[in-house]
Amino acid sequence: MRFSDPVEKLKGVGPKMASVLSRLDIATVGDLLDHKPAYYKDLSQITPIYAADEGSFLICKGTVTSSPRWIKRTGGFSLFSFTVADGTGTLTINIFNIPYLFKNYKIGDTYYFLGRAKAFHRKLQMDNPEVIKEENLRGIAPYYPLTSGLTQNKLKTIIKNALETAEYEDMYSDGFLSEYGLLHSKDDYRFMHLPESMDELSRSKRSLSLKEILVFLKTLELTAVKREETKRVDIDDSVLDEFLSLLPFKCTGAQIRAMKDILSDIRKDRVANRLIQGDVGSGKTAVALFGVYAMKKAGLQSLILAPTSLLAEQHYNTAKNIFGDEVRLLKGAASKKEHEELNSLLSEGKVSVLISTHAVLYEHFDFRALKLMIIDEQHRFGVEQRSFLMNSYPGIHKISMSATPIPRSLAMILHGNADISLLDEMPEGRMPVKTFILRPNKREDMYDWAAGRIREKDEKAYIVCPLLEESEELPANSVMNVYEELRKRYPDIPVEFIHGKMKNQEKQDIMQRFKTGETRMLVSTTVVEVGVDVQDATMMIIENADRFGLAQLHQLRGRVGRGSRESFCYLISDGAGMERLKVLKDSNDGFYIAKKDLEFRGTGNFFGTEQHGDMTFAFADLLRDMDLFEEGKQMLSVMERDFREDYDALLTKVEDKIKDENNKYIVI
Ligand code: ADP
Ligand code: MG
User: Fold this and answer.
1) Is residue 555 part of a domain?
2) Hey, which of 244, 246, 247, 249 would you mutate to test ligand 1's pocket, going by the most ligand atoms within 8 Å of its Cβ?
């Protein structure tokens, strides 16, 4: 079976299962093998019942000592219980709403019970644990992301089939693989899906990650900004003071230093490649707009790219205050008429700055004198997409902005030897956001309190949920449920909801109403995570906070506390991941939080591309695998010298990928 064969060729996969799998973007055998477990459980760690700690996830082995008995059994609800013992203690198992399991449990049967233990009336209990038969408990169990119509067991069987029948191809020679401790592709996949030990798991993790990193680094290398010659821009120092006087606030020292860096860049006769790195709220936008201002003064044009239409719109509104009529926004694909209109404005030089999402890549504009491109939240653009961005307009300066907390050396690798300006100072007058962790039973009180502030102090709240709609697989609060709840509970407060699947215009209208205060509570998915700036929003409420990565929570929290008002962040959690959440309570430093985040990640998400608001890799993780990125960098140069064939194979692969990507855009 080839990797490119459709999944339907596999035993046990008919058209119906194929359509279920397609919902997970799995169409081919290769896609199936690339479907990573979301996490693993190490089933070798059995906890004796007497040592079971309340609240933590455990595996207990127990023999049924009392037959199941019904506690409640009404129309829509059922609960039965039984007890198990392991010689060190007894544990009560409660099964809610799965009545047909009642007859499964017989005195004397032995099972493994996986779940969280809790004490109730001083008795140790587990609610709806996962139950595994004694003979099926083996090694390390993968848990895959699922969709409805698919169970873990069914998916495991299909993947096992694929593993056995796939024809593996190795891009690299045996010599190269063994030199660097990389695995054959067959073992990469076998150890990822069916690890017998932690050692196998980590070997496959390292191997898959390094292979991915090699491709990534080579792509960066081939597409790095070319520091070609360009005409220097003659401009006087006074432009800086002039710009500063237009701002409604006093810039930080770090902002001014970054602006001076930009000024010196554009006076040089080489194309600039500068990264503005600064934590959320450090004020990167103002720095970027200075670049635009300086260009305008010299009669030159700029292009600002944002990863979402929400952000593009927001920058547009900010830029309008400074550039008035000379700024235009490209919201998405333009109609023929709009395109012509915009193009003539740009070609006549009447517009000095165009703000856009990547939509601009699909269109051709005849800028009269484009000289600067600014890419906000650069990591949100895919690598190939970015490289296209970087080189699509030759001879112009590039400034990218990022909030990713990585050390300088890694930033240099990732941004193609960029010069870096660090915004390591927060604007004056910011009060730290007061952060609280809250149990669900205090949730309604907190909402009442928030509603009170909204009524009395004219404040605004974001409410973020991990899900858009209710889901059986993942019990958590959803945007739609919470929206309904709040709307009913506070009929006098205007509540709206927003999510990524809405049309751009709709999203912008909703944000606009939230900005103006027409809307006071905004229930949202993580679409508000990146860059959204509503100055006077003061409350960030996060439902099921333990479902989010720490860095992501830090980004979300960064949406409030942007003005001078006292701001609050409420992390609602039922006790899961409490230690992790406490990190946020204790710190507001993106670097520190990212570091802690790493420490907390165990085998849970082994192939974790836990969202930390950054470039996502399939296997590698930017923060955790920092040393692999360094190692990959060194490997590339050794490869070029000593493993010529492997090097050429890599080169061909990367060149093909770039070509594919560039074909999607109009090359200018
Ligand atoms: P980020 O670095 O996260 O992109 P922004 O550029 O969006 O941050 O700035 C966050 C908010 O702080 C904006 O509302 C901006 O107007 C404001 N701001 C930026 N610089 C300063 C400053 N020096 N003093 C006060 N407020 C500032
Ligand atoms: Mg920003």
Assistant:
1) yes
2) 249
Which residues' Cβ are closer than 6 Å to ligand 1? 249-252, 255, 278, 280-286, 427-428, 531, 533, 535, 562
Ligand 1 atom showing the smallest separation from residue 535 Cα: 14
Which ligand 1 atom sits closest to the C-alpha of 285? Answer: 6
One domain for residues 218 and 242 = no
Over the stretch 146-178, which tens digit does the pLDDT of each residue have? 888 888 888 988 999 999 999 999 999 999 999
| Cα 404 to ligand 2 centroid, rounded to whole Å | 11
Please name the residue whose Cα sits nearest to atom 14 of ligand 1: 535
CATH number for the domain that contains residue 377? 3.40.50.300
Residue located via tokens 């699922």: 146
Residue 131 shares a structural domain with residue 176: no
Residue 143: which H helix or E strand, with range? strand 140-143
Q: How many angstroms does the Cα of residue 315 sit away from the middle of ligand 2? A: 9
Q: The CATH number of the domain where 124 resides is what?
A: 2.40.50.140
Query: What's the domain count of the chain?
Result: 4
**For 369-415, how does the pLDDT look when each residue is reduced to its tens digit (9 = 90+)?**
999 999 987 767 766 666 666 667 778 999 999 887 777 877 877 77
Which domain covers residue 330, as residue numbers?
A: 238-423
For residue 391, how far is its CA from the centre of ligand 1 (angstroms)?
29
**Cα–Cα dist 155/460, whole Å:** 44
The pair phi, psi for residue 4, each rounded to 5°, is: -85, -5
Of 562, 564, 565, 588, the residue with max ligand 1 atoms within 8 A of its CB, to mutate for a pocket test, comes to 562
Query: Which atom from ligand 1 is nearest to the alpha carbon of 255?
Result: 23
User: Tens digit of pLDDT for each residue in 541-596?
Assistant: 999 998 888 888 988 998 998 877 899 999 999 877 788 899 999 888 888 887 78
Within a domain: 25: no
459 and 484 fall within a common domain? yes
Query: 485 with 497: CB under 8 angstroms?
Result: no
pTM of the model: 0.71
Q: 276 with 360, same domain?
A: yes
Final residue in a domain of this structure, among 368, 402, 423: 423
Residue 258 sits in the same domain as residue 347: yes
Find out whether 533 and 562 touch, Cβ atoms under 8 Å: yes
Q: Is the dihedral of CA 196, 197, 203, 205 positive or negative?
A: positive
Same domain? For 278 and 406 the reply is yes
- What three-state secondary structure class fits 247? coil
> Do 413 and 439 fall into the same domain?
no
CB atoms under 10 Å from CB of 490, counted, come to 18
Q: How many angstroms separate the alpha carbon of residue 381 from the centre of ligand 1?
A: 22
